[in-house]
Hints:
Elements: E1 2-14, E2 20-30, E3 33-40, H1 49-65, E4 73-79, E5 85-93, E6 98-106
Amino acid sequence: MKTGIYKDDNFQYKDSYNRDARCGVEVVEVNGKIYAILTELPDNHGVSVTNAVGIIATVVYNQFLSNKPIDKIVWIEHYIKPEETYDEVTLFYNGAVFQQPQWKRIKMPEWF
């Protein structure tokens, strides 16, 4: 069963140089796992989700998921254009920030 935790089609964030950017964020719980889907918006003129995934994950975690076990959170990067893609992103959490992203291409989750 899919349970929505948070959704924002215009999530604002700042890159490491304090420049504005935005993406879509949807956080859902499915079968005991928390999925955070970070969607690159075609009209985002700031830093991409790929280049700011650690920053975005840290903000999303601190604002909405800090009461959830980190080992239950799955980060997914979603691009709509030029072709729709999904990547599971493994991040290291040092107790303050998420960093050292590693990407693995996946098929679109059936529940999405």
